[in-house]
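WARN retry 2 of 3 for item q-0093 after timeout on previous attempt; input resubmitted unchanged.
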Amino acid sequence: MVNRRIGKESSATRQKLLDAAENLMREEGYAQVTSRKLGHYAELKPQIVHYYFRTMDELFEALFRHVTDKYLAALEEVIVQENPLARLFELSCDTSNAVLHIEFLALANHRKSMHGLIAEFGRTLNAIEARVIRETLEAEGIDTPGIAPEELSTIIETVARGMAFAGGFNVDRVSAARKAIIRWLENFGSTYQKISEINRLDVA
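OK item q-0093 returned
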């Protein structure tokens, strides 16, 4: 099994299987991603799944990289736009991403090989978001003593993920709160300055 022939990573069929696995997980959950069901869903023979992925662990690991690579590419696009903090928050609030996030976390409870991949992605995501926050703070001339950009990134990401998870259950309430946070982030610099001025007046 170790030395048997394996399909190329650049294969269009392999890409089709990963796209199908992503959609299947999104629609029916990770437990439904089996070689038989995936083959049927992708309109391919089930045996072809194991031609490209020796084990289901290998498939899920490739799927995680497939999904997170797309997310990081989208992240790199939004952070060069106007009001990058607001755009970053919007991306993290995407409910379709939240569905996959929950499924991968649940999958990790049963497939320990996923733990390292999820932790690695978390570190990469935090580093990118912290860079955006640091650059935004510097551009606005804002200092946040006692809290690092990496910590702010964790706070923003946690709030966004929570709203993404809850969005399917309390649509109106979560949507209103999401819009309020986005408006605040779009005016982050001026809002922060106003708060700082109020605090200085109170101290005086």
